[in-house]
């Protein structure tokens, strides 16, 4: 015959179960507060180079500034997002850009073509790397220069096959 637990033991077990239930409910509620950022995966998002980029993405952009942007969860492979609402969205596996007259800058060894047609939202696309990485930045919230500087280490795992050139370099 087994002894039934003492009232003190039953009370302790009830408190432990209640604490576990409250903790589980809190996790559920807090997780529900942060929505997943919907992003369309790039056509080459399954490339292993994109996986190498994504695992190196920083948890925060513009850390310790007024524009600090925490990382968010996304719904697609090869993507990343920061800020609430998302002010920075990264998409690896984008189409590799061809020659262009758009502005091209080199930041920490990574060349970026800048599409400024939707300013203050700027689209930065790596140049000379396959697969390409696109980064859409709301420059009213966080500096595009800061963002591509902080993402350069992650993106640089994709080997450079070319880079920005000027007309003088091309026809010189």
Structure description:
- The chain folds into two domains: 1-33, no CATH class; 48-167, no CATH class.
- 30% of the residues lie in helices and 26% in strands.
- It has four helices and eight strands.
- Strands 1-2-3-4-8-7-6-5 form an eight-stranded antiparallel beta sheet.
- A hairpin with a 2-residue loop joins strand 5 and strand 6 (110-118).
- The longest helix has 27 residues, at 7-33.
- The chain is globular and about 40 Å long.
Q: Main traits of this protein?
A:
172 residues; alpha+beta; 8-stranded antiparallel β-sheet; 8 strands; globular
Oligomeric state of shown chains: single chain
Q: Helical element count?
A: 4
Total beta strands: 8
Judged by helices, strands and strand pairing, the structural class is alpha+beta
Task: Determine the N-to-C terminus distance.
Answer: 97 Å
Outline type: globular
Instruction: Give the neighbour order of strands across the main sheet.
Output: 1-2-3-4-8-7-6-5
C-alpha Rg (nearest Å): 23 Å
Give helix % range: 25-40%
Average pLDDT reading: 84
Proportion of strand residues: 25-35%
- The helix-strand sequence is HHEEEEEEEEHH
Query: Main sheet, how many strands, which sense, barrel?
Result: 8 strands, antiparallel
Number of domains: 2
**Poorly predicted sequence stretches spanning 5 or more consecutive residues:** 6-32
Pfam families: DUF3515
Organism: Agromyces badenianii
Protein name: DUF3515 domain-containing protein
InterPro entries: DUF3515
């Amino acid at each position: 015959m087994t002894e039934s637990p003492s009232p003190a033991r039953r009370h302790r077990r009830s408190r432990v179960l209640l604490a576990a239930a409250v903790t589980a409910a809190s996790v559920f509620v807090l997780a529900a507060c942060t929505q997943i950022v919907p992003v369309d995966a790039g056509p080459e998002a399954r490339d292993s180079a994109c996986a190498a980029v994504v695992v190196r993405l920083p948890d925060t952009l513009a850390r310790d500034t007024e524009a600090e942007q925490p990382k968010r969860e996304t719904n697609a492979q090869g993507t990343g997002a920061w800020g609430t609402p998302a002010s920075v969205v990264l998409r690896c596996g984008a189409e590799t850009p061809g020659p262009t007259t758009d502005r091209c800058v080199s930041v920490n060894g990574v060349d970026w073509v800048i599409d400024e047609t939707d300013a203050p939202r700027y689209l930065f696309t790596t140049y000379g790397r396959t697969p390409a990485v696109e980064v859409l930045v709301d420059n009213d919230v966080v500096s595009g220069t800061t963002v591509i500087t902080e993402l350069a280490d992650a993106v640089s795992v994709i080997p450079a096959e070319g880079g920005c050139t000027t007309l003088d370099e091309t026809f010189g």
